[in-house]
Design a protein that fits this description.
The chain has about 250 residues and is an alpha+beta fold. The chain contains 2 helices and 14 strands.
């Protein structure tokens, strides 16, 4: 059993200990909030726009991904006829120098890829230096019974495919997608399309998955709980290395 002198010393130190503990808790909380603010990923969001825009022969649809009044891409439909022949084409055209469409080249032609859903569009994407053909068709030869009709391109007669897009907002690169249905009329070889939706990532240089309408690509950034746990762990290690009263 403790003697009175020991109890006296203990009761004398308790208020001082409580004061030090409260001060430390406040300081740790303040520091924790500051560090957490730095550790957490930059908040952003995917902005999705639903659409039902029909693109027919000899028309152009302007695509303004971020709704700032400045077109980012053009979806250009061209149709020409001559005697018993006809040609139809659909192009994806960047409207500004640093904007680009995901695609590939083949036999000196550039094609815009018709991507499936959940393709990661980001800095490592295969982007063209200029416009890309989406679909093309032709009707060649004299009379109809001797004519030969062609239809080709990645977008010839497809449903729910995606354009992978890279564009610039205030000098910074962002990524997005546009979803379209494309068809070629077998009689007139006209190419037509319907733009059904498009989206972009508001955080610069952050990838986006084709078809994703909200959230972000979690594989690129830590979650809030991961960032919080890491930060609290660092605070705990820092606290453990200090001795009471120092």
């Amino acid at each position: 059993m403790k003697n009175p002198s020991q109890l006296s010393k203990l009761s004398f130190r308790l208020p001082d200990f409580d004061h030090r503990l409260s001060a430390y808790a406040l300081a740790a909380t303040a520091a924790g909030v500051g560090v957490l603010a730095l550790a957490l990923p930059v908040e952003g969001e995917i902005v999705y726009t639903k659409a039902n825009k029909h693109i027919v022969a000899n028309t152009t649809a302007h695509l303004d991904l971020n709704h700032d009044g400045i077109p980012d891409f053009d979806l250009k439909d061209v149709y020409r006829t001559s005697f018993y022949s006809a040609w139809g084409s659909l192009f994806a055209v960047p409207d500004r120098g640093k904007n680009a469409v995901w695609g590939h080249t083949d036999h000196f032609s550039a094609y815009a890829s018709a991507l499936l859903a959940n393709v990661r569009v980001g800095p490592k994407g295969q982007f063209l230096p200029g416009a890309g053909v989406m679909a093309a068709s032709s009707f060649l030869g004299g009379r109809a019974r001797y004519a030969i009709a062609y239809g080709n391109g990645p977008w010839a007669n497809v449903m729910n495919r995606y354009l992978g897009l890279k564009f610039v907002i205030k000098g910074k690169t962002h990524f997005g997608w546009a979803r379209l249905n494309v068809s070629i009329d077998p009689n007139t070889v006209e190419v037509s399309a319907t733009l059904t939706g498009y989206a972009y990532e508001t955080v610069a240089n952050r990838p986006i998955l084709t078809g994703r309408k909200h959230g972000t690509d979690e594989s690129d950034i830590p979650t809030s709980s991961e960032a919080s746990s890491a930060t609290l762990g660092r605070l705990a290690r820092g606290a453990g290395s200090r001795r009471p009263g120092n």
